[in-house]
Write a structure and sequence with these properties.
CATH topology: Nucleoside Triphosphate Pyrophosphohydrolase
Largest sheet: 7 strands, mixed
Structural class: alpha+beta
Helix content: 10-25%
Radius of gyration: 14 Å
Strand content: 35-45%
Distance between the termini: 32 Å
CATH class: Alpha Beta
CATH architecture: Alpha-Beta Complex
Shape: globular
Number of helices: 2
Order of helices and strands: EEEEHEEEH
Length: 129
């Protein structure tokens, strides 16, 4: 099982989503910023590193919002989603095709990676659709 971390970053009533590059697996689907936990890393450090690599921002990692296990055809992932805030910097398109800030009511307008389905349902339940 692959350990993956991601950040739920809010700005007022909107949260950040990122569109995967077209050339990657699950290309052009939307996701939360993050990535794989490398050997010797804890989850929080992995998330800080991924946000710096992918968005050129320093984040403050808060508590776990939720975690899910998802079995993709090519990969079994354990995804831990942390609440986080941007401590320094403005997000840049380094790794992703696009970045959006959306409200929970806009979730249905985007096609997300399947592992995010349960997370998005919880966001709608807790923060409104």
């Amino acid at each position: 099982m692959t350990e993956v971390v991601a950040a739920l970053i809010w700005d007022d009533d909107k949260f950040m989503i990122c569109q995967r590059p077209a050339h990657k697996v699950r290309g052009l689907l939307w996701e939360f910023v993050g990535g794989k936990v490398e050997a010797g890393e804890n989850k929080e450090d992995a998330l800080i590193r991924e946000c710096m690599e992918e968005l050129d921002v320093k984040i403050s990692v808060r508590h776990v919002f939720m975690d899910v296990v998802h079995n993709y055809p090519d990969l079994l992932v354990h995804l831990t989603l942390f609440n986080a805030t941007i401590a320094e910097g403005t997000p840049k398109l380094i790794e992703h095709n696009d970045i959006k800030w959306i409200t929970p009511s806009e979730i249905a307008d985007y096609e997300f990676c399947p592992a995010d389905k349960e997370i998005l349902e919880r966001i709608i339940a807790e923060y409104g659709s």
